[in-house]
Specification:
With about 140 residues, this protein is of the alpha+beta class. It contains 5 helices and 5 strands, in the order H-E-E-H-H-H-E-E-E-H.
């Protein structure tokens, strides 16, 4: 299993029930800039923007209490920050890990950096709006 997680290009991050990182693969190192040694044992605040932390932890605690997450199959797109403090856009799914007794022991995510794609989408939407405005300005009004 470690070889699989280590070979993945996407980030794989797993946290215990209190939100401390217990798995941080090379993909996470590449995307976020923190080495595994720096990340292990830390809380996810290192990549969650400050303005979103309360919402993040409310959702995390709810998932830990219920053992359920609505993001197991739905892709979640949110802002994040890397080690240098650079704003990023990430997309991820969540998985819950349970012990033999069925109790949640950890929560993990498979994360992809979509910062470039997000910027391209935003630029395309702006270009589309600009073209529509130009077209409206030259079109005769009825």
């Amino acid at each position: 299993m470690n070889a699989l997680v280590g070979a993945m290009g996407d980030a794989v991050v797993v946290c215990d029930v209190k939100g401390h990182v217990i798995v941080w693969n090379p993909g996470a190192e590449r995307i976020f800039g923190w080495t595994a040694d720096e990340a292990l044992g830390q809380r996810m605040d290192m990549i969650v923007p400050e303005r979103l932390r309360k919402r993040h932890w409310d959702g995390y605690d709810q998932s830990m209490a219920t053992g359920k997450t609505k993001y197991a199959h739905d892709l979640l797109r949110v802002p994040a920050v890397d080690k240098a403090g650079r704003a990023m856009s990430i997309a991820f799914t969540v998985f819950m890990l349970t012990g033999p007794d069925g109790q949640v022991t950890a929560c993990g995510s498979v994360i992809r950096d979509e910062t470039d794609r997000f910027a391209e989408d935003r630029a395309l939407k702006k270009r589309e709006a600009d073209l529509e405005a130009q077209l409206a300005a030259i079109s005769p009004r009825s």
